[in-house]
Amino acid sequence: MTAQADNAHVAPWISGTDLRRLAARAGQTPFFAYGRSAIEARVRLLRDTLPAGTQLHYSVKANPMPAVVQLLAGCVDGFDVASAAEMALALDTGVSPQQVGFAGPGKSLQDLRRAVAAGVPIHVESVTQLRHVAALGWELGVRPGIAIRVNPDFSPGRSGMRMGGSAGPFGVDAAQVPALLDAVVAQDLTLAGFHVFWGSQCLHAPTIIEAQEQSLAMITRLCAGLAGAPGFINFGGGFGIPYFPGERALDLHAVGTAMHAWHARLREQLPGTQAVIELGRYLTGEAGIYVCRVIDRKISGGQTFLVTDGGMHHHLAASGNFGQVLRRNYPVVLAQRTHSHRLERCSVVGCLCTPLDRIAHDVMLPVAEIGDFVVVLQSGAYGRSASPGDFLGHPPPVEMLV
Ligand SMILES: *Cc1c(COP(=O)(O)O)cnc(C)c1O
Known about the structure:
By secondary structure, the protein is of the alpha/beta class. Helix content is 30%, strand content 23%. The protein contains eleven helices and 19 strands. The strands form three sheets. Strands 2, 3, 4, 5, 6, 8, 9, 11 and 12 form a nine-stranded parallel sheet that branches. Strands 1, 13, 14, 15, 16, 17, 18 and 19 form an eight-stranded mixed sheet that branches. Helix 6 (109-118) packs across helix 7 and helix 9 packs parallel to helix 10. The longest helix has 19 residues, at 205-223. The protein starts with a helix and ends with a strand. Pyridoxal-5'-phosphate is lined by residues 59, 61-62, 80, 103, 197, 200-201, 236-237, 278-282, 381.
């Protein structure tokens, strides 16, 4: 199956002419380009599909390019951050600190102090974190807002990457939450809400629906003994995007329909509690491309290799080394040759001295020449910032919001 034929529909805004213009603007290959209108369209689709009042958060780690974060500040309701640097990035957009959530299993005292001082709610993931936050509140003379990140006691069906429902470093086991809630009351902290993160990159709507419904049931149960309803429940996200041949887009409509039903139940059971959905790749992933150039072609053992000036130091995920178990090819297009009928079987590799540095393994592509652009689609999330940029010391890619 050809990567090109199977996935060429994904970024119809890329043509050979666009690419030459983009490359001129970047001043070099390789570069990442993120489409402003594609990101905005994604947010509009979510607003049109999810129940009114759903708080849409962006998970900054998916793509922390400042221009992207700034763009999203204008169209989402808040940010989820996982380091002091991401927190600063979010606050620099002018968003209110209460609209930022600081999660992560390992928060240093220094990072916690910054968050408490800034008034950013801390998504507490252990007894130690709770103790530190309480102490910092006394020290700084403020009443910190916290949310409890719960490691759910359920494990939804077929999520791509599970991050809950079993032993793990993320969040506090549901069974330990009642004791933590007692500590919140004893320490005179403000419970801003709950955070449930059950997984990532899920393309199966029934799994997402099940996870959301189980999250609501679990949090309702945990809230039974509380004086008031929590300010928010962050239901996680998990909305996936198709990367590989044969994968189909998430049925967002089905998720939206189910959300309308449980949203009504939430308003009944916990009046005043807001529902938050946090998304990373679903907002930016499909809006981005990574572009490098063929700088050599060679034959070895009867196989054709296209060598590019890019690679895993810019785009680890496309090389298959960012958590994939079975290596599969990201969608790759030779945009200047989409009308060519001369195809060849080849592998597209990066410029690093390691066999791990593969962009596309054993695919059918139009016959490429030195100088051709290689476009990797679905590259707007977990690209540059998730890659070992220092490895071998080649220059970094340019990033552009266009
Ligand atoms: C990474 C992360 C996300 C975003 O995941 P995507 O798959 O990019 O949507 C959301 N929430 C938490 C807690 C995360 O760690």
